[in-house]
Amino acid sequence: MNLTTPALLFPAISLLLLAYTNRFIVLTQLIRHLHSQNQENLTDVVVRQISNLGLRIRLIRRMQAMGVLSFIFCAMAMLFVFLDMIDAGQIIFGVSIVLLLVSLVFSLYEILISTNAIEIELQDIKRKLRERDVTQ
């Protein structure tokens, strides 16, 4: 292993962290919007949406933490390789890859539950359509 091996992960991890941050910002804006629009009228749908969004925020926080740790370990691996401590550098690089994989698993889970938010909206629309059909 040479210095360029861990260096290859730097741009990937940086882009991943940027994507995670963008997801986080969008979710926080959505939560604030839901909160401001529905302070007086917290329907079951809004409460379920906020609960779903809260879980997603926690997952993104974990994704970001694992991504940052991966980045730190990757930098440490480069340092150890630079200092000709190849075995230690390889082990630390391996830890970096494992942390990156954990981050990606959290990301996959967050993506899978993000569809729950859409399902909640669809259920509410179907319920409203059924109520409208019954009253007509």
Based on the model shown, name its key terms:
mainly alpha
Q: What's a concise summary of this model?
A:
By secondary structure, this protein is an all-alpha fold. It has four helices and no strands.
Task: Describe the protein's topology.
Blueprint: H1 4-7, H2 9-37, H3 44-82, H4 86-135
Helix pairs in contact: 2-3, 3-4
Transmembrane segments: 6-26, 65-83, 89-109
Keywords: Membrane, Transmembrane, Transmembrane helix
Protein name: DUF2721 domain-containing protein
Give a description of the structure:
The chain has 136 residues and is an all-alpha fold. It has one domain (7-135). Helix content is 90%, strand content 0%. The chain has helices at 4-7, 9-37, 44-82, 86-135. Helix 2 packs antiparallel against helix 3 (44-82) and helix 3 (44-82) runs antiparallel to helix 4. The longest helix is centred in the C-terminal third of the chain and has 50 residues, at 86-135. The chain is elongated, with a radius of gyration of 21 Å. The N and C termini lie far apart (73 Å). 24% of the residues are buried.
